[in-house]
């Protein structure tokens, strides 16, 4: 599945997970979409296609919400401009000059090769050391919200960003590396093009001059420099012309034809720069995709699909719901029922019972579970304590498994009262505390 489609799935999933009451997308429409795609494959993608064909039109609230869930990316035109500049830079750095001579040691081949060797070695080490996606802090860029939005919409965008950021940043970093490798290859291509383009309209001759190299050393240097390209592309190095090509003070040189040297120059750049850079670009994309897919799997897509299917499946499972920390008559059972059925299936039957606050120990000791699935509801506005709520769920889970092997205990933390008083980091810290308090004593914590 393409990442474009994966982001579509995550947008819809984020919307449904933050819209437990069905304000934006009713629960009935969700079940209808699940039923329509239940026998198609891939199920999740077919379900999203069905929803978008029928209920997403330009200008609607749903359309604006979905469009507001953005993943960072570099526009294609920006990539094209960068690569175009690399080509131009490669062309410019040939610097053949206006005289009909090419000084083989002045051509920037050695510098290009040394620089690329260092960068490619560092890149290869980074790609092969098994970096699983730790993204540097300076790279954690994300599209800014350019408009003022209400609290529910901000909650939706935060929910999406939290789940999309790990894989999205890994992919963006991998594509940035691949972009740089491709740019380096194009710079080399521009340099090759510059050599041939300038030789098209003028006959160039090859010479060399150096303070450090004598003629035997120059022959060795040219053999090492152009040897790989000569062997691969079957272009002979005219070493017999190295001595006559030597331009020194008081020595009238006999310049060689430049074309064989241009061929060797181009072949060397292709072999030692363009091909390795292309391979490293492919490696960066492959490794980035592999690491991003590992992160993607941690989002529990099979569990999400199972929850969707349970909303249309029959069975009528009996579920015990224990309510803790609510006054009689103030229990929003409709809200709880919707959240529980979203997780366990639309056909489950719920039996509500009160778990008295202050008498938790006595209740847990005398409790006789009757159903294999039990949900304990807590009020997020209360402050969770390991000695109270934590010990309570552990004792209930132990009692449940003693009486019904294979039974499961879930905790539902109702966040609605808390959200009326808190937001931002304060809200997130309280919800995280609830999760840490309950997760070791339950088979799952639901925080809608």
Descriptive notes:
By secondary structure, the chain is α/β, with parallel strands linked by helices. It folds into three domains: 3-69, no CATH class; 76-297, no CATH class; 313-446, Rossmann fold. Helices cover 58% and strands 8% of the residues. It contains 16 helices and eight strands. It has helices spanning 3-18, 27-37, 43-55, 61-67, 76-92, 109-128, 151-200, 215-233, 242-245, 259-297, 301-310, 333-344, 360-366, 386-403, 416-419, 424-438, and strands at residues 101-103, 205-207, 256-257, 318-324, 349-355, 373-379, 408-414, 445-446. The strands form two sheets. It has a five-stranded parallel sheet with strand order 5-4-6-7-8, sandwiched between helices. Strands 1-2-3 form a three-stranded mixed sheet. Helix 1 (3-18) runs antiparallel to helix 7, helix 6 runs parallel beside helix 10 (259-297) and helix 13 runs parallel beside helix 14 (386-403). The longest helix has 50 residues, at 151-200. The model has no long low-confidence stretch (mean pLDDT 81).
Offer a quick outline of the entry.
The protein is of the alpha/beta class.
Structural class: alpha/beta
Q: What's the end-to-end separation, in Å?
A: 28 Å
Helix content: 55-70%
Strand content: 5-15%
Oligomer: single chain
Report the major sheet. 5 strands, parallel
Query: How much is the radius of gyration in Å?
Result: 34 Å
Low-confidence stretches: none
- Beta strand count: 8
Number of helices: 16
**Helix and strand pattern:** HHHHHEHHEHHEHHEHEHEHEHHE
The global form is elongated
Give average pLDDT, whole number. 81
**Strand order, sheet with most strands:** 5-4-6-7-8
Question: What is the number of domains?
Answer: 3
